[in-house]
Amino acid sequence: MNLSSPPGKFNTYTELLFDSTKFTCEKLMRNSVEEATRIKGSCNIAIALDDSWQKRGYQSLNGIVTAMIVDTGKVIDFEDFSKHFRCKTAFNSAHGPSCITKYNGSSGGMEGKGVTAIFERSEAHYGIRYTQYSGDGNSRAGSTDPLTKGPSFISEPPNRVEFSNVSGTVVSCVAEGRPRPVITWVKSDGEVIHDLPGLRHIRHDGALVFPPFSPEDYRADVHAAVYRCIVSNSVGTIGSKDIHVRAVLRYLSQNHRICAFPLLKFQYSYATEINAIRK
Question: Residues in domain Ig-like (predicted)?
């Protein structure tokens, strides 16, 4: 909005409010650090990092990078950026040597610079080390070192996967990063899954494979479950959205016709038809 500057007589109160807010913020973040080290019993902390801009996209003049503790979800540090200039002569059309800006670069580069600053001061500020970090799929937090790169998805698994016990299916999860990331699969509750012969296994390229199976081998905890693909390397860890897997059972009747019933419990008779009884 094209509004005039606020009256100068309020500057004193604005500064007092800013100082009080800053003091409270720093105290709460320090308390969060003490809580995290008490829970972990260690000074090695896992954090989640992400950035935000005042405007959508990469054209914003203002941005912020926030660090949260993974175990508690509480913020412990942040770094803010602004490409606005502060000049002694407010009405000059050209900026001079006395004009100051906190950040001079692309809006998209704010995250990498902010992450670097947060990591560099962790020991000086709190006496802790950030040994692990988590970021979302488009995180640029790992791009500060040209020799390393945080993991990112090339092909993320779909939200829903439906298949029949006759055909089976393969759920692909493709990612990149430096060093090469490791792919693991977990259930919705965070449980790391393992191979189940004939029912489920993880392929060498990280894909989750459900081979064809007979109806009597159906297991709800395998064939009607929610999975996530977790990708990690030494820089960080990302996770896919929930993947709802659902198997459709197909039975072969005596006249060899295929009868398909999704997630039903069946009772066989020696007649030519199959009686389906819902759970």
Answer: 151-244
The pair of structure tokens assigned to 276 is 């389906």
Average pLDDT over residues 107-131: 80
Amino acid at 20: S
Three-state DSSP state, 180: coil
Does the structure show a pLDDT above 70 at 139? no
* Phi, psi angle pair for 263, to nearest 5°: 50, 50
Neighbours of 252 (CB within 10 A): 13
- 8 Å CB contact between 74 and 32: yes
Q: What is the average pLDDT across 234-261?
A: 74
106 pLDDT band (50/70/90 cuts)?
low
Q: Give strand ranges (E) for 108-181.
A: 129-134, 149-155, 160-164, 169-171, 174-178
* Spatial CB neighbours of 168, under 8 Å, sequence gap ≥ 6: 209, 210, 211, 212, 213
Task: Provide the 10 A C-beta neighbour count for residue 162.
Answer: 12
The pLDDT of residue 198 is 94
Decide if 229 contacts 207 (C-beta within 8 A).
Answer: no
CB-based contact 242:139 (threshold 8 Å): no
Q: Position 182: which residue type? A: V
Residues sharing a CB contact under 8 Å with residue 3, sequence separation 6 or more, in sequence order? none
Q: Is 123 helix (H, G, I), strand (E, B) or coil?
A: helix
Q: Which residue has the tokens 């792919």?
A: 183
